[in-house]
C-alpha cells in the first residue's frame, strides 16, 4: 500500500509538473517582447539590464557582497549513523524592488511571487550556523567537505541582463483614463471618514444632517475633486511597474533569454512525463499484485 501511494503520487505529480512546464514554455514563446516606453498594459515580457537605484544599498546576508537581490539557504548535516542527510534550517529571500532598463525606459519590478533564476550562485560548507565572510573557493573549499553546515546563496547584480515576464502597469504621464463614478465614490468615502468635517463644509442649515440638496452639493464637489486629482496625477512623469499576474500566468525573472528558458522547461516537462508514465506502470503492476 505504501508503494501504491508513492506510485500514485509520482503519476499525479509528474503529470502536473509536465503540463505546468509545457504551459509556461508556451507562454514565454507566444508573448512578444515589448519595449517599456510603448508597452501595452497587461501581461508583457521585457529584456533589459538591471540598474542600481539611488539611496538603495543591499548586501547579501551570507557572503556580504553588494547586490540588487539575494536568496540563501542554510542546511545542516544531521541524522543517525544509518541515515544522514542535509536538512534545511534557515532560508530567506530579499523583497527589494528591481529596476530594469531596456534603453527606451525603466520599469520597477516587485519580485515577490516570481520564479527568479539568477546566474550568480555560490555553495560552500562550514562549521558555523551562520558563515563568517565570503565563500571559500579552490582548495580551501575542498577541505571544507566534512563540515556540518552547507550554505548556498544566489544573487542578482547591477549590469546583468534580465528577462522579465509578468503583469505590467503604468501610472502618470496621462496614460490612465478616468472612471469618474469610481473616483467620485472614492472621494466621498474619504470625506465620510471625517463626517464632522463633512458637516462643517456642507450642512448649510446646521441641523447636524445632510438633506438631499446638501448631498447633491457633496456629490458635485466630489466630482470636481476627483477630476482635479486625476489632472494632477496625469501630469506626473510616467511610472512603470511589473508584478505578479492576477491570473495563473508565469511570473519569471531570469538572467537567461526566453529561448533558453523554454528549452529548459521542455526538458523538465519531458522529465515529468517520464515520471508520470513510470508511476502509472508501477501503479498498474501493484494493483495487479494486490488483486492477484
Can you characterise this structure?
There is one protein chain. With 292 residues, the protein is an alpha+beta fold. It folds into two domains: 2-172 and 238-291, no CATH class; 180-234. Helices cover 39% and strands 27% of the residues. The chain contains six helices and 13 strands. The chain has helices at residues 2-30, 138-143, 180-192, 195-202, 212-234, 258-291; strands at 42-51, 58-59, 66-67, 69-79, 84-93, 98-101, 106-109, 115-117, 120-126, 149-156, 161-171, 239-243, 252-254. It has a five-stranded mixed barrel with strand order 1-6-7-12-11. Strands 5-4-10-9 form a four-stranded antiparallel beta sheet, with no helix packed on it. The protein has a two-stranded antiparallel ribbon with strand order 2-3. β4 (69-79) and β5 (84-93) form a beta hairpin. The protein is elongated, with a radius of gyration of 28 Å. 22% of the residues are buried.
In short:
39% of the residues lie in helices and 27% in strands. With 292 residues, it is an alpha+beta fold. The chain folds into two domains: 2-172 and 238-291, no CATH class; 180-234.
Which key phrases capture this entry?
single chain; 292 residues; alpha+beta; 4-stranded antiparallel β-sheet; 13 strands
Total number of domains: 2
Q: Estimate the helix proportion, in percent.
A: 25-40%
Cα shape: elongated
Gyration radius (Cα, Å) is 28 Å
Order of helices and strands: HEEEEEEEEEHEEHHHEEH
Q: What proportion strand?
A: 25-35%
Low-confidence stretches: none
**Treating each run of at least 4 consecutive H or I residues as one helix, how many helices?**
6
Which quaternary structure do these chains form?
A: single chain
Whole-number average pLDDT?
85
Structural class, by secondary structure, is: alpha+beta
Distance between the termini: 14 Å
List the strand order in the largest sheet.
Answer: 1-6-7-12-11
For the biggest sheet, the summary is: 5 strands, mixed, barrel
Q: Care to count the β-strands?
A: 13
Keywords: Membrane, Transmembrane, Transmembrane helix
Organism: Pseudomonas benzenivorans
Protein name: RING-type E3 ubiquitin transferase
InterPro entries: EF_Hand_1_Ca_BS
Amino acid at each position: 500500500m505504501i508503494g501504491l501511494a508513492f506510485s500514485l503520487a509520482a503519476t499525479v505529480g509528474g503529470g502536473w509538473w509536465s503540463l505546468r512546464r509545457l504551459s509556461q514554455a508556451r507562454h514565454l514563446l507566444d508573448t512578444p517582447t515589448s519595449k517599456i516606453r510603448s508597452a501595452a498594459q497587461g501581461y508583457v515580457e521585457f529584456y533589459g539590464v538591471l540598474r542600481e537605484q539611488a539611496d538603495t544599498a543591499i548586501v547579501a546576508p551570507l557572503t556580504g557582497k553588494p547586490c540588487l537581490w539575494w536568496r540563501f539557504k542554510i542546511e545542516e548535516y544531521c541524522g543517525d549513523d544509518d541515515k544522514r542527510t542535509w536538512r534545511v534550517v534557515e532560508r530567506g529571500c530579499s523583497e527589494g524592488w528591481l529596476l530594469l532598463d531596456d534603453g527606451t525606459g525603466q520599469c520597477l519590478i516587485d519580485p515577490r511571487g516570481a520564479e527568479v533564476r539568477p546566474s550568480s550562485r555560490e555553495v560552500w560548507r562550514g562549521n558555523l550556523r551562520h558563515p563568517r565572510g565570503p565563500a571559500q573557493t579552490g582548495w580551501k573549499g575542498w577541505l571544507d567537505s566534512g563540515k556540518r553546515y552547507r550554505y548556498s546563496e544566489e544573487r542578482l547584480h547591477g549590469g546583468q541582463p534580465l528577462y522579465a515576464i509578468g503583469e505590467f502597469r503604468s501610472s502618470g504621464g496621462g496614460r490612465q483614463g478616468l472612471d469618474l463614478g469610481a473616483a467620485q465614490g472614492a472621494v466621498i468615502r474619504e470625506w465620510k471618514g471625517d463626517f464632522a468635517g463633512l458637516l462643517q463644509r456642507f450642512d448649510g442649515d446646521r441641523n447636524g444632517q445632510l438633506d438631499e440638496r446638501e448631498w447633491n452639493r457633496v456629490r458635485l464637489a466630489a466630482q470636481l475633486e476627483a477630476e482635479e486629482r486625476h489632472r494632477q496625477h496625469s501630469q506626473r512623469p510616467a511610472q512603470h511597474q511589473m508584478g505578479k499576474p492576477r491570473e495563473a500566468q508565469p511570473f519569471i525573472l531570469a538572467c537567461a533569454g526566453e529561448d533558453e528558458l523554454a528549452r529548459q522547461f521542455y526538458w523538465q516537462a519531458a522529465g515529468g512525463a517520464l515520471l508520470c508514465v513510470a508511476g502509472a506502470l508501477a501503479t498498474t503492476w501493484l494493483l495487479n499484485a494486490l488483486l492477484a
